[in-house]
Design a protein that fits this description.
By secondary structure, the protein is an alpha/beta fold. About 30% of the residues lie in helices and about 20% in strands. The chain folds into two domains: about 15-245, NAD(P)-binding Rossmann-like Domain (Rossmann fold, 3-Layer(aba) Sandwich); about 265-400, no CATH class. The protein has helices at about 20-25, 35-50, 75-80, 85-95, 110, 115-120, 130-145, 180-190, 195-215, 220-225, 275-285, 325-330, 330-335; strands spanning about 30-35, 55-60, 100-105, 120-125, 145-150, 155-160, 230-235, 240-245, 265, 290-295, 300-305, 315-320, 345-350, 350, 370-375, 385-390. Strand 15 (about 370-375) and strand 16 (about 385-390) form a beta hairpin. The longest helix is centred in the middle third of the chain and has 20 residues, at about 195-215.
Length: about 400
């Protein structure tokens, strides 16, 4: 007769490993940013390990070019243009029904609040742009979290681990090169080579997952059972089967990214859906001050663009991270942006009672749900900086608590 006793995921396998703590892994909270080839591998490994809480962030839809490199995608996903994050979440639950997966279709700057980062144990980067890595570096540091970066090429890749006080992505000089899986595939196709990106994705993704498991097992890490890549880079070069690790050379004392936002004040009645004018009043009352300014640290709010060639004005009313797509969607604006000096952008980085669009919600000006706001109070010469949480949005992320 079959044994019907309910078992914990993987206990008859991982339980044989001396250092593996099933409950610690089950209770872990990991955010993976980027659900392409590399993200697929990382998330698949974490689900198999039984990591109990995963947050997947990506704004892209699935394309046919993704299918040769992404183990969790299917042709029908590309047929219907499904979002990567949502499909990945579905497939991970199929692999391991015991885990909790939250999918966020969106941009790091305006769709993922800092309070979500604060709930995480580790943040993993599987992105393919310098902008996204820079923003991840700053947000992870503000939340006081370790983040693991990975990058892949056709026959190799790297993994680096960053921690505030140890090493910083922006303190290391690097070439601003954007390499994406579709670009690699097209390049290989032109040269008549076999696409090997799935191999590098599986190798680099496995190292990222391995580093995550070490950090989750913090007691074993502190005891010296493990060593991590914090402040280091692991580089794999598959053409000649070489791998090596080296330490980063610098950590600049005055780097602008070295911020840790602490002593955060929770305001239960404050949400990203609150109108901006009302939010200023709520914050002022909670802090006991008259003058309040919200500093938009992840990007400005843009109300209009002006063509420098003929002074035409185009109303936008969008957060700055959405402007490139807004321009791309307009043949006229895309043309003007590169002609005769381009476009003038009128924007707001600081929001106070003089802001002309106080009827817009915080979310409409670019502040995500469950965010932490940097607030300056007082008048010139008497300003003080404090941090407040949009605590009314906590309900949206109740699965993380």
């Amino acid at each position: 007769m079959a044994d019907t006793t309910e078992k914990k995921w993987g206990e008859d396998v991982f339980g044989l490993i001396s250092w593996f703590k099933t409950e610690k892994v089950k209770n872990a909270k990991i955010m993976v940013v980027g659900a392409g080839a590399l993200g697929n591998e990382v998330l698949k490994d974490l689900a198999l390990f039984g990591v109990g809480n995963l947050v997947v962030v990506d704004f892209d839809e699935i394309e046919y070019s993704n299918l040769t490199r992404s183990v969790l995608f299917r042709p029908e996903d590309a047929d219907k243009g499904f979002f990567k994050a949502e499909v990945v979440a579905k497939r991970l639950r199929e692999i391991n029904p015991t885990i909790n997966v939250l999918a966020i279709n969106g941009d790091l700057a305006i769709d993922v609040g800092l309070a979500v980062y604060r709930q995480m144990d580790v943040i993993i980067s599987c992105v393919d742009s310098v902008r996204a890595r820079t923003l991840l570096n700053r947000l992870s540091f503000r939340a006081g979290k370790i983040w693991i970066d990975g990058g892949i090429g056709d026959l190799g890749g790297y993994v680096s681990v960053y921690q505030l006080g140890r090493h910083c992505y922006e303190c290391t000089p690097r070439e601003n090169i954007r390499v994406s899986c579709p670009q690699i595939a097209r390049g290989n196709e032109k040269l008549g080579r076999m696409a090997t990106t799935p191999l590098s994705a599986s190798i680099i993704g496995a190292v990222q997952a391995q580093e995550t498991m070490k950090i989750v097992h913090d007691e074993e890490l502190k005891s010296g059972k493990f060593s991590t890549l914090i402040g280091k880079m692991f580089k794999y070069e598959g053409q000649h089967n070489e791998a090596y690790t080296y330490k980063f050379p610098s950590y600049e004392e005055y780097c602008i990214s070295h911020e840790y936002w602490e002593n955060i004040i929770e305001i239960p009645g404050l949400s990203a859906d609150t109108k901006t004018g009302e939010a200023l009043k709520i914050i002022g009352k909670a802090l006991g001050v008259e003058s309040v300014t919200i500093n938009l640290r992840n990007g400005a709010f843009v109300d209009y663009l002006i063509s420098l060639s003929d002074d035409r004005r185009f109303e936008v009313m969008l957060p700055a991270p959405k402007i490139p797509n807004f321009i791309d969607a307009s043949n006229e604006l895309e043309f003007l942006s590169v002609k005769d000096g381009g476009l003038f952008t009128n924007s707001y980085e600081n929001i106070d009672e003089e802001f002309p669009y106080l009827d817009l919600t915080l979310n409409q000006i670019g502040i995500p749900h469950f965010d932490v706001l940097q607030i300056t109070t007082g008048k010139m010469g008497e300003k003080e900086c404090v941090y407040v949480e949009l605590s009314a949005d906590k309900e949206r992320y109740k699965s993380l608590f």
